[in-house]
Write a structure and sequence with these properties.
Blueprint (H helix, E strand, L loop, with lengths): L2 E4 L3 E7 L2 E8 L1 H9 L6 E8 L4 H8 L3 E9 L6 E6 L6 E7 L19 E4 L4 H9 L7 E5 L2 H6 L1 H8 L4 E5 H8 L4 H10 L4 E5 L5 E5 L2 E5 L13 H16 L4 H18 L13 H15 L4
The structure holds adenosine monophosphate.
Amino acid sequence: MSVLVVGTVAFDSVESPFGKAEHILGGAGTYIGLSASYHTRPIHLVSVVGEDFPQEHFDRMTSHDIDISGIEIVKGGKTFFWAGKYRDDLNTRDTLDTQLNVLADFSPVVPEHMRDAEYLMLGNLLPSVQMRVLEQLHARPKLVVMDTMNFWIDGFLDDLKEGLRLTDVLTINDEEARMLSGEYALPAAAKKILEMGPRYLVIKKGEHGALLFGEDQVFYAPALPLDEVVDPTGAGDSFAGGFLGHIARSGDISFENMKRALIYGSAMASFCVEKFGTERLVGLTEADVNQRLARFTELTRFDL
Ligand code: AMP
């Protein structure tokens, strides 16, 4: 059941119509790890930070049983920084600043005790860095899930395509799916992307839910209509954490179980957006998570 995650650990500054949060804990690896920790433990994280990264942020991770021994701390280095601002609809985000800092020279080293991981989550990163993690494992994991973004599709397509050949599940948003495939209709986009390597494709559509394609089937999970959305940062990563966390706990990689995983992912994303940064992803109880899962069942159950 061992889960290995590679992804950024970052400082984020976020502005939304509901306020501002400066220099808070962020990063894809952080969100994935915290979210997955509600479903399976421990989560092994491979990442990099600078010497400016505070102990309290490490403590937040270890309190969720995240194994941080794979996080390299670069002496004298500065942690990756990202700043973004959401427009009024909360669906559109403008990146204000990206400072790669220690990420610019990151060459991941997977500690020996993590090299037998059964489940691998390749968080949004330079495709060649994602592959370097996969190469260091003793055996091919039972399931490899990859996330990526428009930036890598745009500038690193060849590397990305190489990675896709080794990936089981790709999770991207609708805009990225269209960009990667050159197709507008999502079923057509999915068909092309599945021909690139992954057996399954998850297309995230923000407040409009998520689609799962594979084995000539398609499944749709809605997003929960929430009373309050404050900060969508990390929603996609929280989704991935819930998705893979459920699969790892159950040990079942069938399409039927992936449908359930889509609901687990959507539930974790729904928590994430309710507060700034990782605030809502800490301190949830099992009852909180179960109640939220039950709301999804209620939302979609009907008789004809
Ligand atoms: P999401 O909202 O799911 O797209 O993820 C947001 C997180 O991704 C933030 O916490 C950022 O620190 C991180 N992030 C932003 N830009 C990048 C990038 N170019 N590479 C990797 N991670 C990034």
